[in-house]
Hints:
267 residues, alpha+beta, five-stranded antiparallel beta sheet, 13 helices
Amino acid sequence: MNLIGEYLRARRELIRPEDVGLPDNGHRRVPGLRRDELAMLAGISTEYYTRLEQGRDRRPSAQVLDAVARALGLDGDATAYLHALGTPEAPRRRRAERVRPGVQQLLDAWTSTPAYVQSPLQDVLAANRLAVMLSPVFRPGGNILRSVLLDPEVQEFLPDWRHRVGSLIAALRAMVGPDVDDPRLTDLVGELSVKSDLFRRLWPRHDARQHPGGGKHHMRHPIVGDLELYYEKFEVTEGSGQLLVVYRALPGSPTEDALALLGSLPL
């Protein structure tokens, strides 16, 4: 499988010539930039770039990858992803994902703070009671990307779900890197490719961005109404890829009152 070639081709086709100062006479046979144009921008030969995109150079230097990344206008996350594709490690055999008992105990102790743990493939591995009350997307055993794309109940809770999908897909790419032979990833991508037009359109772009460490989400709960929640993400164990996600409301805000009401309701 030529992962680096697929990625370079996908990113090259997204660049308009006029965005990088090249003329566009309207008679192009390929979308985006040609190989020779990207090679010129990167300061490498067309022959070498062609070998790279065709997967005939399995170990490009870091300097070459950085030059290509600059020519493609990649940000830090996308550049790191390109380096991971260019210097792949031996495939890892993933074990069944579990959280440590102490992590589950910590989640359960947070009775007024929604929190959950997700795997690199965005499976929900554990959650506390308030997170499950907050949204069905946080039920343990589900997959966040699958739920957002395919579950109408989850979409009702997330008014801006279509805008979030691109970030979820890019985060999935960044987390798995070149380790694309994981059967669970293959199954997930296959299922979503069949069932979701939006996924079929976005996955081939090869966008790769790490999860933001924090931010704000808007949710719409059928009982307590609109919620404005702030979140932080933490790596559970270095190298595991598991993320602890913790939500909070601003002190004295209507969302804080809504969470208190939600926590008092039966599950």
